[in-house]
Amino acid sequence: MRRNLIAVTYWACRAIAALYRRVGMAAATLMHRATLKGVGKGSRFQLGVRFADPNVVTVGRDCYFWRGCDVSSERRNAQLNIGDQVQINRDVHLDITGGLRIGDGVTLSEDAVVYTHDHGLDPHSTAMALPKTIEADVWIGMRAVILPQCQNIGRGAVIGAGSIVTRDVPACAVVAGNPARPIRQRLPVAQEVA
Ligand SMILES: CC(=O)SCCNC(=O)CCNC(=O)[C@H](O)C(C)(C)COP(=O)(O)OP(=O)(O)OC[C@H]1O[C@@H](n2cnc3c(N)ncnc32)[C@H](O)[C@@H]1OP(=O)(O)O
């Protein structure tokens, strides 16, 4: 009898947690659809995704935002344009001060950080805005840091986990380390799949 009660309580708690996640995601998705500048069909947001200025954010189709994703800017009207089928994992931080474009099929893994402004050697100076483009099919590994001086990550490039990227990355390059250096070249995505 006591065992049954524990089992029922356990499964009831699991059901409530699953319902909370589902309802939470539906509510968060509705809210972001209502407040962002544009959201394509099929894009979903977990609870706990934050856009400091939703008016400047455009999201394409079938994107997925995990909890803890945070988008901020040090100036008004900086734009964030996200393509289709982009995955933004847990606790990713995007600074869009300089303007940020993310192409179709990009994946940002957990805790990745992308910055688009700098302060030289004086953290109290006015932010220097540096626009950035992350081209289609790029994969940014977990805990990678993309510094403002890197203004372009070429199509199909892979950034290794924990890397510090200080300069532009050519298309299909695999870079890793601190500072990130090329470790190999990848085939264009279409050829790798074939
Ligand atoms: C979809 C998701 O979100 S999954 C969860 C997140 N997962 C990740 O972030 C993983 C990202 N992947 C990586 O970091 C991988 O190591 C890659 C893609 C960068 C490289 O993978 P591979 O091409 O298989 O490289 P490989 O393991 O053969 O390593 C080649 C060399 O680079 C080094 N290296 C590989 N990755 C890294 C890294 N992240 N940082 C520093 N050096 C690295 C290796 O030590 C090796 O050096 P050596 O030749 O001196 O021994």
Please, could you describe this protein's structure?
Keywords: Transferase. InterPro entries: Hexapeptide_acetyltransf, Trimer_LpxA-like_sf. This is Maltose O-acetyltransferase. One of its GO terms (cellular component) is cytosol. Belongs to the transferase hexapeptide repeat family. By secondary structure, the chain is an alpha/beta fold. It has one domain: Hexapeptide repeat proteins (UDP N-Acetylglucosamine Acyltransferase, domain 1). It is 20% helix and 28% strand. The chain is built from 2 helices and 22 strands. The strands form 4 sheets. An 8-stranded mixed sheet has the order 2-5-8-11-16-19-21-22. A 6-stranded parallel sheet has the order 1-4-7-10-15-18, covered by helices on one side. Strand 21 (173-176) and strand 22 form a beta hairpin. The longest helix is centred in the N-terminal third of the chain and has 34 residues, at 2-35. The relative contact order is 0.09. The mean pLDDT is 95. Acetyl coenzyme *A binds next to strand 21 and strand 22.
- Can you give the helix content as a percent range? 10-25%
Rounded radius of gyration (Å): 19 Å
CATH architecture call? 3 Solenoid
- Along the chain, the helix and strand elements come as HEEEEEEEEEEEEEEEEEEEEEEH
Structural class: alpha/beta
Shape: globular
Chemical compounds bound to the protein:
acetyl coenzyme *A
Q: What is the number of helical segments per DSSP (H or I, 4+ residues)?
A: 2
| Sequence stretches where pLDDT stays below 50 over 5 or more residues | none
Q: CATH topology, anyone?
A: UDP N-Acetylglucosamine Acyltransferase, domain 1
Q: Would you count the extended β strands for me? A: 22
Major sheet: arrangement of strands: 2-5-8-11-16-19-21-22
Distance between the termini: 58 Å
Instruction: Report the major sheet.
Output: 8 strands, mixed
**Tally of domains:** 1
β-strand amount: 25-35%
By CATH, the superfamily comes out as Hexapeptide repeat proteins
| CATH level-1 class | Mainly Beta
- Give the overall pLDDT as a whole number: 95
InterPro entries: Hexapeptide_acetyltransf (IPR051159), Trimer_LpxA-like_sf (IPR011004)
Keywords: Transferase
GO molecular function, one term: O-acyltransferase activity
Family: Belongs to the transferase hexapeptide repeat family.
